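Issue: ligand-bound run for magnesium ion - logging full I/O for the record.

Environment: standard queue, default settings, no custom constraints.

Inputs:
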Amino acid sequence: MIIKKNIVIPVKEHGIAVQQLCQHATEVVRCLQDEGYEAYIVGGSVRDLLMGKQPKDYDVATDATPAEVKTVFPRCRLIGRRFRLAHVRMNGTLIEVATFRGPQVNDDDDHQHQDGRILRDNVWGSLEEDAVRRDFTINALFLDPITGDIKDFVGGYKDLAERKLRLIGDARVRYREDPVRLLRAARFVAKLGVELAEETAAPIIEMTPMLAEIPPARLFEEVCKLFMTGHAVRTLETLQRFQLTNTLFPVLKEHGKGGKATISPLMNQAMKNTDLRISVQKPVTPAFLLATLFWRPVRERVAALIETGMHEFAALGQAADEILAAQVQRTAIPRRFSVVTRQIWVMQPRFHFTSGRKAKSLLQERRFRAAYDFLLLRAIEDEALEPLCDHWTEAQKGVKLNTGHYNSRNRHDKKHRGRHRRRGLRRSSSVSKN
Ligand code: ATP
Ligand code: MG
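Outputs:
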């Protein structure tokens, strides 16, 4: 990658006023500069401000090493192994301070895997070198909050104006170095409404298998960023467009053609609900989202197990375990989530017991509300479940539930309720049908 001439964009051109910036990030930069170091606000926050969006956090890049940052901010914490950086707290706000990175030493096994993947990224470098090791041009703009200037070595300012998402350097090499960039590309397209530059988009589909080399725990973090930041609907569309869904969720594999998974109406609605909940600052849990994503393979496995003579309840438990075990090979799922996902699934047949002791104990389950919300989603695909939904909507009125709140679909409108009451409750085969 040839470093372009440093282009300086003055404040009168880019228009980000000092007052718009997080004071604490500015303060961190000022302290570092006062000690003679170079320091800038960089990455997503500069990009978001230029796009007129509110940054969710601020990153600072500096030529001070983590140890030197520690001398400037003695109470900061040095974190990370793969990517070492300093966490500086200013009046409760966390600012991530990273040292400029330089190019990797290619023949050093410790840093680079044979397939081109970068394992550790702790070689210090200059400002220019730090710019070109970043992923996309629009993520490599350096803002000096004291002078107001933005420094751009990679044409990011122009790309941003044109709403282009472009990898810095040779796209194939950059995806190979860190295949998570494939997912980051999809995430930024969904989140920012930008379009991929042609050369950045071209290799994606052929490179998707490389995601399998990423440690499952890191992929789980990415899944959370993909689906739990308010753009789940667009993210899923984008993952589908770039045929990334199947690689990320191998258990969906049989359900689609040409690398695309089949997105069920239930999944779509779950994504919509998640985005809606985030937009009004309601909590969301990956456990519920995962339950919606993998319900179809679970159901199909249940059907196969029932064929072999297994009872529905036992089949559901076994199918849940099998599907989760298969998926965690690719994306880890911390147990605190997978346990809840499983509970949501195995509670489904219990909704068919609408009276007596069993019904009462179901209402007292800690995950009742999540399982009920899941039942509402299932009714999108199986009308026969609607009377059951209405029954349980009524049944929980006045009952103190044992649980928090998850995704829900608003089914409390009168028109629906009247129609269902007339139809009455009918028992439909539970999991294997929907
Ligand atoms: P978000 O709004 O999701 O936080 P972001 O651009 O700030 O977007 P972060 O994951 O917070 O993304 O990373 C901060 C910056 O670090 C990025 O803007 C980019 O410059 C750099 N970066 C992050 N991940 C990578 C990566 N995998 N490869 C290269 N550079 C990266
Ligand atoms: Mg960020």
